[in-house]
Design goal:
Strand content: 25-35%
Strand order of the largest sheet: 1-2-8-7-3-6-5-4
Shape: globular
Structural class: alpha/beta
Distance between the termini: 23 Å
Number of strands: 8
Number of helices: 6
Helix content: 10-25%
Radius of gyration: 16 Å
Largest sheet: 8 strands, mixed
Length: about 200
């Protein structure tokens, strides 16, 4: 696999995850903030994040249309070595990408058109897929958190500088929620990989 030059910078954030700040009682790990400056760098972030994932992990992706959620998931698929091109599952709601090697499958869900929260998501049997797969849910905020006490929440935002939106630049926040993402989970290595 070709290495992509890393043209991004990062900083480690010690702020609590949104769930912890809201007083839900769910343990949260320190998060990482990364500035990504190209789609190739976003895919590389996905490949690096895949190295930290294991069967049973739930990843929520948040960001506006075109922010880079599917591009990040493409990198996850490459890093997990799964079959099939990772494309947006907007019209099919969910796609399963079986592993090509001994790793977990990737279940890629787009919850954008689902409005009913976990009840609607139950029809997708994500709770059955979760123990043996890495489940990535775009637009999953407020819809799938109940699937697991341990999850990653990745927020992708377009960077703004000097009153303009910087086209390819994204600010990515990766927060681990729950005991799975406590000390030693490796999230801090993501920031180091993109440091100037």
């Amino acid at each position: 696999m070709e290495e992509v030059p890393l043209e991004a910078r990062a900083q480690r954030s010690q702020a609590p995850a949104p769930d912890a700040a809201a007083g839900t009682g769910t343990a949260a790990a320190a998060g990482t903030r990364i500035t990504i400056d190209s789609p190739d760098a976003m895919r590389e972030l996905g490949r690096r994040l895949a190295r930290l994932l294991r069967p049973g992990d739930l990843v929520l992706l948040t960001g506006e249309l075109g922010a880079g959620k599917t591009t990040l998931t493409r990198g996850l698929g490459e890093g997990l070595d799964v079959r099939g091109a990772v494309t947006s599952p907007t019209f099919v709601i969910a796609r399963v990408h079986p592993p090509l090697s001994g790793g977990p499958a990737l279940v890629h869900v787009d919850a954008y058109r689902l409005g009913g929260g976990l009840e609607e998501m139950e029809d997708l049997d994500l709770d059955v897929s979760l123990p043996d797969s890495v489940v990535v849910v775009e637009w999953g905020d407020g819809k799938v958190e109940e699937l697991s006490d341990d999850r990653l929440h990745v927020v992708i935002a377009r960077a703004v500088g000097h009153e303009e939106v910087l086209d390819d630049v994204r600010e990515v926040s990766v927060r681990g929620i729950g005991a799975r993402w406590g000390a030693g989970a490796g999230l801090e290595t993501l920031a180091g990989a993109f440091a100037e």
